[in-house]
UniProtKB/TrEMBL annotation, chain A:
<dbReference type="GO" id="GO:0005730">
    <property type="term" value="C:nucleolus"/>
</dbReference>
<feature type="compositionally biased region" description="Basic and acidic residues">
    <location>
        <begin position="255"/>
        <end position="266"/>
    </location>
</feature>
<protein>
    <submittedName>
        <fullName>Uncharacterized protein</fullName>
    </submittedName>
</protein>
<feature type="region of interest" description="Disordered">
    <location>
        <begin position="184"/>
        <end position="286"/>
    </location>
</feature>
<feature type="compositionally biased region" description="Basic and acidic residues">
    <location>
        <begin position="204"/>
        <end position="238"/>
    </location>
</feature>
<feature type="region of interest" description="Disordered">
    <location>
        <begin position="104"/>
        <end position="172"/>
    </location>
</feature>
<dbReference type="InterPro" id="IPR027973">
    <property type="entry name" value="FSAF1-like"/>
</dbReference>
<dbReference type="GO" id="GO:0000462">
    <property type="term" value="P:maturation of SSU-rRNA from tricistronic rRNA transcript (SSU-rRNA, 5.8S rRNA, LSU-rRNA)"/>
</dbReference>
<feature type="region of interest" description="Disordered">
    <location>
        <begin position="62"/>
        <end position="82"/>
    </location>
</feature>
Automatic annotation (TrEMBL), chain B:
<keyword id="KW-0690">Ribosome biogenesis</keyword>
<dbReference type="InterPro" id="IPR023797">
    <property type="entry name" value="RNA3'_phos_cyclase_dom"/>
</dbReference>
<dbReference type="InterPro" id="IPR016443">
    <property type="entry name" value="RNA3'_term_phos_cyc_type_2"/>
</dbReference>
<dbReference type="GO" id="GO:0000447">
    <property type="term" value="P:endonucleolytic cleavage in ITS1 to separate SSU-rRNA from 5.8S rRNA and LSU-rRNA from tricistronic rRNA transcript (SSU-rRNA, 5.8S rRNA, LSU-rRNA)"/>
</dbReference>
<feature type="domain" description="RNA 3'-terminal phosphate cyclase insert">
    <location>
        <begin position="206"/>
        <end position="316"/>
    </location>
</feature>
<dbReference type="GO" id="GO:0008047">
    <property type="term" value="F:enzyme activator activity"/>
</dbReference>
<dbReference type="GO" id="GO:0004521">
    <property type="term" value="F:RNA endonuclease activity"/>
</dbReference>
<dbReference type="GO" id="GO:2000232">
    <property type="term" value="P:regulation of rRNA processing"/>
</dbReference>
<dbReference type="InterPro" id="IPR036553">
    <property type="entry name" value="RPTC_insert"/>
</dbReference>
């Protein structure tokens, strides 16, 4: 215990000394501190930076002096002195300092964390889409409006007031939702008395029948009637239910087909008989 | 038709007792375990946490029968169906109250429960509470709940179990109390994804390189600055190796539990801190984890804990393979119970050679699963072993009806 204690003490002292040093003499310390980060920014000031820090403007030192002071700086070759020297320093440690709020939330939530969350950088990259001007956005807006008008113009046609309001507005919303992938229409009424629903369905089928009958009588070929969809081939039987047959009234009913599927194609009876007999004997023996 | 008299599989000693019970429940074969700590003069028989596990097993299954001998050294268990949490008016949460004498972390229960949960009939929702719930890692070798959530639960995704339906909610954190006993935490597990047959796994490729390190530092009832100190020390070790390290820090109050001796009738227990780290690899689904708690008697600085945890993580990485020792029993059991297909998983030599895994393999053979095939991974000089496991096609117990 004693040696570790001693070591720890020394380490702590070292750290405190370092921090004090950093706060007082800044540029001399090898550790990364605020002063040096500013210095690095200053060095890169020759390159037009997208984000200009105010602090770098204040510092006004000749760049040559600055570079000479830098301990880890490799030195400038004589020929290049008239050209602009570009130094790029990327420090991963300072870039990814802490989890972003979203990432922290995702990681510390009660669900197991997703394996594909990408690390978000603390400092987002400077705006890359600075070049797009307001006219671009306006154009996009107009584009969208035009597309919508084209898609929904048929709604406006028969109505008296040619504006997207009232009933038309709801219809337009429904169209847009369906374009976005909505499965059901918002105009479809979900709950109504059974008699109403029956009536509506009966009316629909009657209309459709009438249309088809008249078309047939007039010799018009219509599209194929949509077959009534029978239930899917594999229905979900639930976890606990038997995998075969129909369970009703406490009995599992197996159709002929089920039995045939279980048994498989019939083989010669002699082989099966032999095996069955063998099993029987074994039981008796025990 | 009368059921034939069950043939008991006979085992001895308390070692991997619970894994045997889990295998018994999954395969439906009754077990008879004798000589449970029979040589111990002071604490013979089943330990408190084992009794708690039996109670939990009883509450999530239907029709299981367990008999414990007078001394507790012999246990007979006839498994029933895993029904999960059947709603009995009000909440569908099964409550599992752990006694104060429990020395194992709640992760010990969670790992076993999660193996059973995919085969349940209904979703399994269990709430662990009481004076024995330790959410942190423990000195008895259990990992923390954070590791279970971030390193073990993601493994289930590969078996066709939706990770989005799994939830492990820590409502109250707690470290091990005085003498490593008791805590006072509250943990909820919601396992909402049940399958007929879990898919098998093919993880025979190289684990790749560690691309990021995540973790949780937790302090319960002690200064929150311990978190920062642990994280600082761990990063000191790991920063030169991986640039992408994030460790979240979590500070909570110590839980209040009832205490008759004090004047207010309540006292705070489960004070402590610890660090859980996971390393995600470039190969998908490979997660190494490490867990170090501060011992319950104290005397260890947060720096020491952080450093030890970082070194433990490095040790786990050096062991290689795609699954760590903590996750290997889960993965191997699910593969063996899964579809009748040969799955492969790449494990480090030290992981395969550990006592637990070898005993698990032997037990599985005894329970009727096929034996494992082992061969060296040839593609590199890692010395890993590829374990081939053929599924027994046991799958969901609900199948036993048909």
């Amino acid at each position: 215990m004693a040696p570790t204690l001693g070591k720890r003490k020394r380490e702590g002292a070292d750290i405190s000394k370092k921090t004090r040093k950093a706060s007082s003499e800044g540029p001399e310390s090898a550790a990364l501190n605020a002063q040096e980060i500013f210095r690095r920014h200053f060095e890169t000031q020759f390159k037009p930076l997208p984000v200009i820090h105010k602090s770098t403007k204040i510092v006004d030192v000749a760049p040559e002096d600055d570079l000479e002071e830098e301990s880890d700086w490799g030195g400038i070759s004589e020929g290049e002195e008239d050209r602009v020297q570009v130094v790029e320093h990327t420090d991963t440690h300072s870039r990814i300092a802490a989890m972003s709020k979203e990432e922290l939330k995702a990681f510390m939530s009660s669900k197991p964390p997703k394996p594909t969350t990408e690390p978000s950088l603390l400092r987002g990259n400077p705006d890359t889409n600075e070049d797009d001007d307001p006219s671009e956005a306006a154009n996009l807006k107009k584009d969208l409006a035009l597309q919508r008008l084209l898609a929904e113009s048929h709604l406006l046609e028969p109505s008296k007031n040619p504006t997207l309001s009232g009933n038309n507005r709801h219809k337009a919303t429904d169209l847009r939702l369906q374009a976005l992938g909505s499965k059901t229409s918002i105009l479809k009424q979900e709950k109504m008395p059974m008699s109403h629903r029956r009536g509506i369905i009966a009316k629909q089928t009657e209309k459709e029948d009438k249309r088809r009958r008249e078309a047939r009588e007039n010799g018009i070929i219509l599209e194929k009637a949509k077959m009534k969809k029978s239930s899917e081939g594999k229905r979900d039987r639930g976890v606990g239910a038997p995998g075969v047959g129909k369970f009703s009234g406490g009995t599992l009913k197996l159709s002929k087909k089920d039995i045939f599927e279980i048994e498989g194609p019939k083989r010669s009876s002699s082989g099966r008989g032999g095996r069955g007999a063998g099993r029987g004997r074994g039981k008796r023996g025990r | 038709m009368a059921a034939p008299a069950p043939e008991f599989l006979r085992f001895t000693t308390h070692k991997s007792l619970t894994y045997r019970l889990v295998l018994s429940t999954l395969t439906g074969r009754p077990v008879h375990i004798s000589q449970i700590r029979s040589s111990s003069p002071t604490n013979p028989g089943l330990a408190p946490h084992e009794i708690s596990f039996l109670r939990l097993l009883d509450s999530i299954t239907n029709g299981s029968v367990m008999q414990i001998s007078y001394t507790g050294t012999t246990l007979t268990y006839i498994p029933g169906l895993i029904t999960g949490s059947v709603s009995m008016g009000g909440s569908d949460m099964v409550k599992c109250v752990l006694p104060e004498t429990c020395r194992r972390g709640v992760s010990w229960f969670l790992l076993l429960l999660c193996i059973l949960a995919p085969f349940s009939k209904a979703p399994i929702n269990v709430r662990f509470e009481g004076e024995g719930v330790i959410t942190s890692a423990t000195e008895t070798g259990d990992v923390s709940v954070d590791t279970v959530r971030t390193a073990i639960l993601p493994l289930y995704e590969a078996f066709g179990i939706m990770a989005s339906k799994l939830e492990l909610r820590v409502l109250q954190r707690s470290c091990a109390g005085t003498g490593g006993k008791g805590g006072g935490g509250v943990v909820e597990l919601r396992f909402g994804s049940q399958v007929r047959l879990p898919k098998t796994l093919h993880m025979n490729r190289s684990p790749g390189r560690v691309k990021r390190i995540r973790g949780v530092a937790y302090s319960t009832g002690v200064s929150a600055s311990n978190n920062a100190r642990m994280i600082h020390a761990a990063r000191g070790v790991l920063n030169p190796l991986v640039p992408d390290i994030h460790v979240a820090s979590q500070y909570d109050q110590a839980p209040l539990v009832g205490d008759k001796s004090s004047s207010s009738g309540k006292k705070r227990t489960g004070v402590g801190f610890g660090l859980s780290l996971i390393a995600e690899c470039s190969s998908e689904g490979v997660i190494y984890s490490a867990d170090v708690p501060a011992p319950s008697q104290g005397g260890v600085t947060p720096e020491e804990v952080g450093k030890r945890c970082a070194y433990q993580l490095l040790e786990m990485v050096s062991q290689g393979g795609c699954i760590t020792r903590v996750g290997a029993p889960t993965v191997l059991t699910l593969m063996a119970m899964g579809s009748e297909d040969v799955g492969r998983v790449r494990l480090g030599k030290d992981v395969v050679g550990s006592e637990d895994i070898i005993r698990l393999g032997r037990d599985m053979k005894k329970f009727g699963a096929s034996s494992w095939g082992l061969r060296d991974a040839e593609d590199d000089g890692s010395g890993d072993i590829i374990v081939s496991v053929k599924g027994a096609g046991v799958g969901n117990v609900g199948r036993k009806i048909a």
